[in-house]
Every structure is written in C-alpha cells, then in structure tokens.
Amino acid sequence: MAADLPEASRRLLEAVPGLDTEIRFFPDGTKTAADAAKAIGCPVSAIVKSLVFVVITGEKEESVVALVPGDLLLDTDKLANVAGADHSRKASLDEVRQATGYAAGGTPPFGHANTLRVFADESLTRNDPVWAAGGTPTTVFPISVADLDLLASPIWADISRY
Fold it and tell me: What CATH number corresponds to the domain at position 114?
C-alpha cells in the first residue's frame, strides 16, 4: 500500500513511525475541505485544515501551523494573540514548503521538515475521528483527536471564526 502512495505521503509515514492509519488516495483531489468531505463522505467539520501562517512580533517572523475544522475560518488576530505575536499573515507557497516540507493543500498536521509550533482550534473535537491531509492535495487519512493531540502536540485554543 505505502509503495503506491505519492512520495510526500510515504515521507509522512516515515517521519511519524507511530502513525497507525491508512493514507487514502483520491485522484480527483481533496484540495479544499469541501472536496475532501465529499470524497470521504464525512461532514466538512471533520476535515482538519493544516494552515501555515507567519506570526510576527516586531522584526521577528515565525512560521506556525494552525489546525482548523473545514467548516470554519482561521481568525488571524486570534492566532497572533495566542502565539504571543503582534499580527500574522498567510505564508507564501514557498514558505509553506520550506517550513513543512509539503505543498500547500496537502500539508499534514505533523511530520514537518522543521519543528513548528502548532495551534489547534478547540472545535476540532466536535468530530472523532477527523481527517487530515496526507502530504499531497490527493491524499488524506483518518486520525482520532487523541492521536492528533499526541502527534501534533498543539496548543489548543479558540482560533477560528465562522
């Protein structure tokens, strides 16, 4: 099974040996939360969006990952506040790849190329399991909220808005 997966998905499995799940491939893509929910057959709220943002304090910039349910939007002011920053901005496509080792649209919640702070919206706990990107815009995997917490080690906070 793993040999049939895209290279980025295999890299995720190698980076997180404790990940006990099956990465599923959807050739038509799961780039958006709605696309993923439709392909999987789950509520949009069960999709974990792994969003890479840059939090900025003075001259210092730090890439972080925000985990938000698919039916909500990230509140960038809340993220900056929880991260102890002045403000935040969406990372560029190059910054996403440099920080995580994965392309935007396929970024998993953990297993990144660099150690990043991860923030998770508390409303992700509405569904169990949840579904996250498996390294590419065409791969996803189910994971329990407990395992997501264990493997991503996020700071749980209210970081979303409708």
Answer: 3.90.960.10
